[in-house]
Amino acid sequence: MRRTIVAALAISAALFVAQPAGAGTMSYLALGDSVAYGETDFTQNPSNGDRGYVSPYANFLGGQNGGVRPSVVNYAIDGETSSSFLTGTNRVISSPGMTDQKLASWNTNYTNPATTQNQMMQQQLIAANAAGNPVSVVTLSLGANDLFKLAANPTFQSATPAVQQQMLTATLNQIGSSYSIVLAEIHALDPTAKVYAMGEYNPFPANPTNPLNAIAKPAVQGLNATIQSVAGTWGATYVDTYTPFLGHEAQYTYMTVTPGNVHPNAEGYAVIANQLINATPAPEPSTIAVLGLGFAAIAVTARRRSLRNRAA
Question: Structure pTM?
């Protein structure tokens, strides 16, 4: 029994020596559009984005990490499309006089609003790896603004249903292509990060008279199918936000308070955060927990041997 315990202590020491500096720390990188940024009624800007679904999800991650909340960096931008994520231009403008750079400046994490979100993402992943503390979790929400730009296109509005379907398919293909670029970059720069691709909800049933209500359902479903497919290709986890909003569009968004404001309210963001939490696997047992189980097994084995020896 003494030899067994000595061996176990030796293993324990070796395991603790093998732990890298800073082990146990976490960082969470949020990327995407206004929903990722945590936009509500446009009265809470500028912001660092630690709100919306990002804040409660970070709290949850802290609970998984022994009560230590992760470092949160949110680079999401209002009006961001899958293309402007890469180029920094042609975002969906929310009000007259707004520009691409003004939208970026609402996010206080941007010291230079001309920097693209893609560049910010790359810099963060590279810096985190260089510091020996790779980003642990990444969430990505993109695509809804691409659909808004399509719906606002006069050519789309005057087209036949068949041509509209062709234009929608082309837009979804573009979204898929941009999404693939972003996920490929994340995988290349930080292959250990857990990536969650956020699906899109459909807010328009909250206001049946909205002209987009008739075409929103197939468009959003097509977007979600695209995101889910690309996410699977790159090992990311798709998060369904469409289903829990069904029948609750007025309850979870600002659509009935401010017609046209599709953003979630506090209750809606809590629902999205819960979907993200449900998609997150339980943490692996810590080294201490594993050692505890090992010592317990050793003690049981030793006890059984002692009883057998006495019986003999």
Answer: 0.85
